[in-house]
User: What shape does this take?
Amino acid sequence: MNCIKDIIKSLRNKIELYEYFYNVLNISIISDQEYDKLIEELTILEKKYYKHDSSNSPTKKIGKNFSNELKIRNHIFPMLSLESVYNINNFYNFYSFVKKNNSENNLKLCCELKIDGVALSILYKYGKLVHALTRGDGYSGEDVTHNLNIIKNVPNILLGENVPEVLEVRGEVFMLKSDFNSLNNSLKRKTKKIFSNIRNIVSGTLRRTNICKTSKFVRRLFFCVYGYGFAIPNNCFVSHYKMLQKMKSFGFSINKYNVLHKNKKKILNFFKKSFLMKNKINFETDGIVIKTDSINLQKQLGYNNKFPKWAIAIKFDTENLITKVLKITFEIGRTGILTPVASLNPINFSGVVVKNVSLYNINQMKRLGIKIGSHVLVKRSGNVIPKIVRVINSTKTYFKKNILLPVNCPSCKSKLFLNNCNKLYRCLNRVFCAPQKEKLILHFFSKNALNIRGIGPKIIKKLVFKGIVNSPLDIFSLNKKTLCQIENINEKSANNIINRLNNSKKVYFANFIYALGIPEIGLLLSKNISKHFSSIEELIHSDYVDFLKIKKIGKKNANNLMFFFKSKNNIKYIKKLSKILKIIF
Assistant: This one.
């Protein structure tokens, strides 16, 4: 039974980590399909072993952590998410359930394209906009009214007649693909960092507090209504489809692909057509949503603690393409681990060209059995980073070449060390290995660490190459004269960097711990560590047993922490940093 308890705990920890990355950091590290499978697996185990069920489980929760900078408000009615399925049999079960409980003569289902954006609820009283909230945890959301007001297709005052006294409108905020591409092309011309996906822009823009910095992005955003949460009088809508038409008369945009169907066959045809045309549509869509058209039937079917029972989303399956491995190169990561990278015959995923795919580590490469010349199946779902799933064994073997593992670090040429526990190769020459230094410094000043803009990978690479900096400590000693020696940095840019450094010396303890770059200690664990210790002195004088007492710290993490804080060089480094920075506990 303890084994089952550990499995459930491990699943919950994984899901919470993925949710944190997706909802707070706007990073997709697994596909929707993989995430939904984890949720399904956890749900089955919790039902079977009900003693280990918990009200705090991800299967019971809807949403996410909140930004510290935005005001939190309650939704009038819970803003639940949708149950997502990938198997048509699940749709048949849903259809049978709705039909069985339908007491009306004609069963109609409204089918809509599922827009991949950020869900929003907007409250109107007597036709005037009051506030706009993100989904949040489903019961409360972040107030983003200050940014919503400048999205062109959201009316401040509702148009037309018979406007409800109170109306909570719900919909999706998104960006057109064409605008996204134009924005990235503009950033490329200015040699600035481009956005990886549309959802990151939408989520990040809505949650900004500085409207001046936001406006140039927000004006490219659109709002599309998909429903309502609450209305007074409560009987003003009887049909979901007609409600959407009414929303259009109030001045909102609705999805032009919405259709009403009465039987399963037509709904499945709509799903197939939608999948075939998704690349031609000017917005990101990852499936279709099917809703009971009758509002009375919706009320009758009701909700569970996470989903409405009267709606379901059928997601499009992962995109898989086959290509050829042209060569394998090796890189050194921030912690010194040797990472193989496969160079591929270029493949196109819905307009995104993929040429290189990381294989994460040597074990992954060996497990897949990849050789130079192998044909491989590459998977990409939504905006998740592509990965190689498997080798296609049907191709001829005599054109393939075995991969020779390097003996020395591809950068500093020092001998690689093989860890017998995890069978990973690592470069231990942290002080003189340029990629490690560059990535460590970049990590230190990244968004979730000290969050200092202007110190990007290109500048850090040049500073390390010229021998000007060797650690984050050296960055704080930079002056205008030194920075102006770097290509493309003028006097104004140098002054901006120095000002940002001086103004960003206040850092929360959790962000400081994360910035140190301790192997496998991410932001979530850094937060738990910061809550456990009240000072740096207490942290650096702790031992393995102390670390195991921290929430969600296992044996491997405790070992990493112990070895990191055993190093005299690391302790000296931390103490010097603590004199420069003002760490907030």
User: Anything to note?
Assistant: DSSP finds 22 helices and 21 strands in the chain. The CA atoms of residues 133 and 364 lie 42 Å apart. The first helix runs from residue 2 to 23. The radius of gyration is 26 Å.
